[in-house]
Design goal:
The protein has about 425 residues and is an alpha+beta fold. It has four domains: about 50 residues; about 90 residues, Beta Barrel (conserved putative lor/sdh protein from methanococcus maripaludis s2 fold), CATH 2.40.420.20; about 90 residues, Beta Barrel (Elongation Factor Tu (Ef-tu), domain 3), CATH 2.40.30.170; about 180 residues, Helix Hairpins (Orthogonal Bundle). It is extended. The two termini are about 80 Å apart.
Length: about 425
């Protein structure tokens, strides 16, 4: 009986082990089926996804190639009338809107003690500068006499038969070996150089005298118009006190001028913009430009490049090259130091083949575009010309009406078909998906 029970127990254990093995096998088979199902689904999904292209057609059009830069208004056809005088305004001769000519009286000031002292010192400086001109001129006369004397001595020696042949040609061998001749020639050249240098000294003294005269005028009791034009922004009233202005940027003993009015002339406003070292070689005097002022964003002005600084200035290891553009017209709304931006026109071409710049790619110095040929993407080499911010000229490689790829998107599968990630393109084209 015990033997029968043992056999029964063994049969039960074997049955349990068999059932456990079948259960593991079933789980493994289920996992394998899930993996195969996922793989099949991904394969079928990838078969349903195809790239979608944004395209544009090659068209004929116009391209304006330009350089963009920002800056500010440096002159708005306004000239300031300033004075360094201090005292009480005695008389004002003009009002806003009056026309004045150069040198015309604007106002009279009764100078205070400090104003009189500054005016007297400025007059003294002017007289000293004027005396320096006279002294420099007198020295020039003496140097000219010495130059002429040295030249006469050298000329007489050079034309002597010892140093000149009968036909007038120089006897170089004698001249090169003679200390007398060499000394006379050196004396003449030195005297001539001193005389020429003195002419530069005279020019310097004249500039200094002119500066001293302007300083004297600035401290004078009479305020005059520096140019002809229309008076604006008059800030003087009879009886008002003009205090002495100190220039804090230098030292306490230095005085500065204060603006009392402005004169509007007929000159058109100018702006200055800074170019990079890449753009400045492209810009030339006479090129046209379009200008927008930040404060007058609803208006666009035209102008012309009048100066190009190709030396530039460096700040924080960055070099910028100032360019001045003069506007073709003026406006009372244009004021000094207004922020401005300019598009300087480098070149304009009409009736040329153009494409969106996003269609053109460059690799190893070769430009190319992508097209769809026989349901496949293909690269076509092209030669490009000028370009703007959005368009590029095609010189060769494409024809009008050709369709090029400007971008690539993907599609997602839905029950009703495929849906683009984003919509079709522009510039005469749209979305293209090979079948």
């Amino acid at each position: 009986m015990a033997k029968v029970n043992n056999q029964s127990s063994n049969l039960v254990v074997k049955a349990k082990n068999f059932l456990a093995g079948r259960k593991k096998l079933t789980v493994i088979l289920i996992i394998i089926l899930i993996i195969l199902g996922l793989g099949t689904w991904r394969f079928l999904s990838s078969k349903g996804q195809q790239p979608q292209y944004q395209t544009a057609k090659v068209e004929r059009g116009t391209i304006v190639s330009s350089v963009n830069a920002s800056g500010k208004v440096i002159t708005a056809n306004l000239v300031s009338i300033t004075t360094s005088a201090s005292g009480i305004v005695k008389t004002v001769y003009v009002k806003d809107g009056d026309s004045v000519s150069t040198g015309q009286k604007i106002a009279e000031i009764t100078l205070d003690a400090q104003g009189q002292q500054k005016n007297a010192a400025a007059w003294s400086s002017y007289l000293s500068a004027k005396n320096n001109i006279d002294a420099a001129s007198a020295t020039a006369y003496s140097l000219r006499s010495a130059k002429d004397t040295a030249w006469k001595k050298f000329y007489d020696l050079a034309t002597n038969s010892q140093y000149q042949n009968s036909d007038g040609s120089p006897r170089e061998d004698q001249r090169n070996s003679s200390a007398e001749f060499q000394s006379a020639q050196a004396d003449w050249l030195a005297a001539e150089a001193k005389y020429k240098n003195q002419q530069s000294t005279i020019d310097q003294t004249k500039v200094a005298a002119n500066s001293a005269w302007l300083s004297y005028q600035s401290t004078s009791s009479t305020v005059s118009a520096p140019i002809s034009g229309t008076i604006t922004n008059v800030g003087l009233v009879e009886g008002i006190v003009l205090a002495s202005q100190t220039d804090s940027s230098t030292d306490s003993s230095s005085t500065s001028s204060q603006r009392v009015a402005t004169i509007q002339n007929e000159a058109n406003p100018m702006i200055t913009v800074d170019l990079t070292e890449i753009d400045v070689p492209k810009v030339k005097i006479g090129q046209k430009a379009t200008i927008i002022l930040d404060s007058l964003a609803d208006k666009t002005f035209t102008g012309e490049v009048v100066t190009v600084d190709k030396i530039g200035t460096t700040s924080n290891n960055v070099t910028s090259y100032p360019v001045i553009v003069q506007l073709d017209t003026t406006s009372d709304q244009i004021l000094p130091n207004m922020a401005a931006s300019a598009a300087i026109i480098l070149e304009t071409k009409s009736d040329i083949l153009v494409v969106l710049s996003t269609a053109v790619q460059t690799q190893a110095g070769q430009s190319y575009v992508r097209v769809i040929s026989n349901r496949r993407e293909e690269q076509i080499p092209v030669e490009t010309g000028i370009f703007s911010d959005t368009q590029t000229e095609i010189v060769s490689g494409l024809s009008e009406g050709d369709e090029v790829i400007t971008g690539t998107t993907s599609t997602t599968q839905t029950q009703g078909g495929s849906t683009s990630v984003f919509g079709g393109g522009g510039f005469g084209g749209g979305a293209f998906r090979p079948r």
